[in-house]
Amino acid sequence: xxxxxLPNYFLKDDKTFALDEAIKLSGKIAGVCYDKEGFKHLENExxxxxxxxxxxxxxxxxxxxxxHILINFNLQDVPKILAMILNNEHQYxxxxxxxxxxxxxxxNNSIITETEEKLYNKWLDIFKIKIKDKYGYIYNDNKxxxxxxENARYLITVFMPTQMIYSTTLRQINYLAxxxxxxxxxxxxxxxxxxxxxxxxFLDNLANINVLEARLMQNDKERSLSLFNSNxxxxxxxxxxxSTVYKGSFAQLAQAxxxxxxxxxxxxxxxxxxxxxxxxxxxxxxxxxxxxxxxKVKAVNPQGEIIKIKERGTYEAFILxxxxxxxxxxxxxxxxxxxxxxxxxxxxxxxxxxxLAKDIQKYTHGARCTFPDFHCPTDCQFKEGKTLVRKI
Length: 392
Hints:
- The chain has helices spanning 19-29, 39-43, 47-60, 80-87, 114-135, 141-152, 170-186, 190-208, 250-256, 284-296, 315-325, 332-351, 356-361, 383-386; strands at 2-5, 70-79, 93-96, 161-169, 237-238, 241-249, 263-268, 306-314.
- By secondary structure, the chain is α+β, with helices and mostly antiparallel strands.
- The chain has two domains: 2-95 and 160-216, Gyrase A, domain 2; 237-386, Gyrase A, domain 2.
- Helix 5 crosses helix 6 (141-152), helix 7 packs antiparallel against helix 8 (190-208) and helix 11 runs antiparallel to helix 12 (332-351).
- The longest helix has 22 residues, at 114-135.
- The protein is globular.
- The protein starts with a strand and ends in a 6-residue tail after the last helix.
């Protein structure tokens, strides 16, 4: 794993972060709230005055001024699961390489095993045949290839290396580092220990590029990484806010995390379960073969491994999710889960005579192109997609 800082005001010639200068700027910004003459005056104040303010804010926990410093990281060969951890903390912007649109290419010294590569290619061919047989009338070979890749990647480890541009603030990256330190200290299971290994590598890289400040990493409030929970209750609620629990794959969770106004937590299952792509679900021979192949890679935690997911948010945020995921272009697994939650939400609102019951009704007639308050710029012309019964 390597991490670089994209060019910015605080990038030094040796490609490390000018932490001292960033801290000083934050110290000046901290004076804005009470300086009568404004920031221009603070820019030229004596350095010792700035540093006194720096020490005060860093030591008393008033760290918000350090959110003004945005850092753009170029993360290379970062494990997918670590990217998901970063993407679950909402103060960020990310652009990540998509396994949906790019084929698996095993690099030298890659963490991906030969078994994974072999099974990926095997099922890539199977999916292409199945998709073409059922949907060749609507999808061309290029689209079929992408859909086959999307499904074959379920067999690849959730620790597979990926690349992403990750932008967050000086405060947030230090908070993340402190929460990772806490996770590393408490790791017990093989999955946790493997993840802890990569977290430590991540922290070592951050130290090497000089973005860690010990006083921002004190974690006095004992906060933890938001993604993990060891005891998710099955209690659900649907009203102006909602909370629901369901099972889904790692791959689905990665899709869901793009909705940053919604909170997600996960819990690993005690007994392994795996997602079965609907395109093969009506062929028991293929289903058995799929599950057998999943067992061959279970030790690497494939992206098709099922986990328990808790989703919480507001009614408005969920409707926005529907406007994104109830679509032919959306990943099938998350489309089906969003549809299931929508129908559950509708039933709960009707049962409790909630005023929102009338509003949610207009979103239950099919894909987002049927919504009265959504305009689709490109008609897919795909009936099974619009009625949300497609199998790919």
